[in-house]
Amino acid sequence: MSIRFTLRDILGSGFGLAFMLIGIDHFIHPSLYEPIVPEILQSARFWVLLSGLFEVTLGLLLIIPRTRSLASVGIASMLVALYWANFNMWYNDIPLNGTRFDDIWHFVRMLIQIGLIFTIAWIGQITPFKGREEHIKSMSSEE
Q1: What is the pLDDT of residues 74-93, one digit of tens each?
Q2: 141 lies in a domain?
Q3: Which domain range does residue 67 map to?
Q4: Does some domain include residue 84?
Q5: Residue 69 falls within a domain, yes or no?
Q6: Taking the alpha carbons of 97, 80, 46, 69 in that order, is the dihedral positive or negative?
Q7: What is the rounded distance in angstroms from the CA atom of residue 34 to the CA atom of residue 44?
Q8: Model confidence over 102-114: pLDDT tens digits?
Q9: Most buried residue among 23, 46, 54, 120 by CB atoms closer than 10 A?
Q10: 88 CB contacts (<8 Å, ≥6 apart)?
Q11: Run of H or E residues at 112
């Protein structure tokens, strides 16, 4: 019996697990995330817990190949929406766990977020390429 794993399977599982762990952390340490929730939204705890729920759920769906495309749309949308909190942290110089960050850190964080959105879109094949990459076929356990 041959087991084949594509690069999308490996990255989907890795990123899915990462989103699940970060989502769980939203429930364990909500006070860490509450300060960056924009004040206009009020009830920061609610938004932190809701985003944690989305991260856990969408992370799990990203691991499952059959739901990966749906999860990718959800995660990419979530990352765009949640950037509001990251921008709020940057614009209002809000400390994270007692630490204030320079503009360059926030700029790099924004670039990482954009790269993550594109990576998630590629994993779920929601890009215009839809799996047409020729140089990366799959990673197989066969020798």
Answers
A1: 999 999 999 999 999 999 99
A2: no
A3: 4-132
A4: yes
A5: yes
A6: negative
A7: 5
A8: 999 999 999 999 9
A9: 120
A10: 36, 37, 38, 94
A11: helix 103-123
